Amino acid sequence: MDKINGPYHKEALYVYVVIVLAHWAEHLAQTAQIYLLGWSIPESRGVAGLWYPWLVKSEALHYMYAFVMLVAFWILRKGFVGRSYTWWMVAFWIQFWHHIEHALLQAQAIFHHNLFGAPVPMSVAQLIIPRVELHLFYNTAVTIPMVIAMFYHMFPLPGEEAHQGCSCRVLNFIRTIITVAMMILLALCIAGWIWADTLPAEKMTGARWALGLCGAMAVGAADTSDIEVALALEPSPPVVGDSNVTLTITDAAGEPVSGAEVKIEGNMNHAGMKPSFADLGETQERRRSQTVKSAPQVPPPVFDALRVPLLGRFLKWRYSRTVLQVPVLLVSLVMIAHAFWGPQLAPKNLAALLTWVHFRGLVVLVLLLAGNLFCMACPFMLPRELARRWFTPRWEWPTALRNKWPAIVLFVMVLFIYELFDLWSDPWMTGIMIVGYFAAAIVVDSLFRRASFCKYVCPVGQFNFLGSTLSPLEVSVRDQAVCSSCTTKDCIRGTRAAAVETSASNQQLPVIQRGCELALFQPRKVGNLDCTFCLDCVYACPHDNIGIVSRLPAERLAVSGTRSGIGKIEKRFDFTVLAIVFTFGALLNAFAMISPVYALEQWIAEVTGLRVEWPILAGMFGVALVLEPALLLGVAAAISRLGSDEPLLSVVNRYARSLVPLGFGIWLAHYGFHFFTGFLTVIPVAQDAADRAFGMALLGEPLWQLGGIPEWIVYPMEIGFMSLGLLGSWLVAWSIADEDSPRRVWGSFMPWAVLHLLLYVSAMWIMTQPMDMRGTFLGG
């Protein structure tokens, strides 16, 4: 990857542009076949479809184009810096949605289950725009920011040019050629628009759609910013002035060594100095022969929630978390009361409905759209803070249990008990579980120091930690240099009274603002694992150097090496098992809610003669969470390590984290299905609860007819969530393979890509089956 984004970046972009043009040629040929030749839409199959019709009918051709373009956007992104990086990522995200649409079409072609009752596969946007024009629109929407990114990449600003590690820059007259070419294209589009008047009415609209979109692309490519149309055939001599280079030597920990600094100064102003075309060519060849891996990257613009007016001020207020926790705690208390004293019919009980429909759905959606905000507003921590006023923790968490094993056991137990006791249909048992959770949090954190419950015990917390690796926001330092010069390290140690007031006493002064209780040292923190978004580090930092910043989802999953408070996850078997349980547990939990599971349980009962459910359920859990992962991951690791004597477990540990994006996509599809199809059901249940509690309709008469979004609309969203997860798993696995085996990336990557695809297809099959509408009246 370093060579592709270094000396061979220009060649890689050439190949990519050829693929893009081939894709455009297919769609433009199809447009010409419909609007110029008068062919019917089924007959208009582009170029390749003329010889191989199955490529178009099976949706394979355009899905592969969409997938290859998406992967290329991702791989080539590291070669762009500054403005070009921003525009490149805009194109990437548009292409990502374009790929989701094609994945939706491909899934319908494979499973022969078309959306909206259509005779042919349908995408979501096809409800608004016809398919031929829609694909022209999508490709134009992707091409415009892509061309802008390439333009800025070829003609970078002086500050950006110094950080480019490739030789993609071209001579200034090429700028003119591109501009003139785009102007000619725009003129042809205008002429075509006028010519469209001669076409029949049924063809005029489509032709103008295509010409208008091409014209928009030409304008977007030509009018990027400050393009001067000048036909100078020789570039002006560059201004070469004083040059200064400072080298700072650091130790193994990354800290600057005092006094170890080398300065190199020189002047390049020579009379008559003027580069020729040959000189520039030699310079490019010289760049081609080097891979500038150490070139610092211009950080792309990031969003920081703590710098947003009002929101940032509120979040930096030390009581902001308490303000968020209080309403969630009050809702929890209402749920507990309704669980014990409300109606024991789950669809009419707030405890069952909010826990199993709304809470789970909101958690995964908030993780996807923002970050680990539930842990930030966790209601279990507020009583714990009150308890610590009377019970000071005296013990350290046992060394042998400083891992994820306790949480893994509890996570599996929750999944097992949920199915065994049908918690979704039992408000009273749901209330018992909520009370037990509060009690466990209070007892553990009253006995043991720091956030032992969150880090080592809480199964919901572990779910959120893994899910938040896919979140777009992360608590992170803004400037590493500020942290390097910091002497107090308050973000981890906490702020003591001496920091704000002087004292002559030799006694250790009390902590007035604690640091991170999960042992995450911010300058060495990587990603969201083990981070509860409590913001204690933000409150404690004396330099205001910590923010809630944007980042690329799943990006930190691919990072190897030591993580503060965690160590190396690629060497921790407990993290491997947690990722496996998280992913295969998502499949198991969804499978347990469809009709075939009842037939399977009945068959097992007949074969074994068992008349109780728990051993049958335990056997299914053993197969799904132990035997199946061991077999599938073992085979993938064995093929991946061919030619190496590396232990099998080491390979599994390294690649297991690539399962997390797909696992989260399955959880998101499953929980999102229940939430979206029943999110309004809480209104009549709350109205009924108020009526029963106060003897009057304080919230109005119950509107029992309220439900949610129809299933036929939610189904494409499920496919989109799972496709997003599959893509994320492939990207993480590719990054690991690229780092692990740079000479045989495909050989290391493909076994895991096939494993992810098998799990994805299994999840797709599950989601196409009739699913229990648990916790609501929907579906009868």
UniProtKB/TrEMBL annotation:
Localization, UniProt: Cell membrane
Domain of life: Eukaryota
Residue stretches making up the 4Fe-4S ferredoxin-type domain: 523-551
Protein name listed in UniProt: 4Fe-4S ferredoxin-type domain-containing protein
Gene Ontology CC terms: plasma membrane
Pfam families, alphabetized: YtkA
Transmembrane helix among keywords: yes
TM ranges: 12-40, 60-76, 136-153, 173-196, 323-341, 361-382, 403-421, 427-448, 573-594, 614-639, 659-686, 712-737, 749-768
Lineage, highest ranks first: Eukaryota, Sar, Alveolata, Dinophyceae, Suessiales
Keywords of the record: Cell membrane, Membrane, Transmembrane, Transmembrane helix
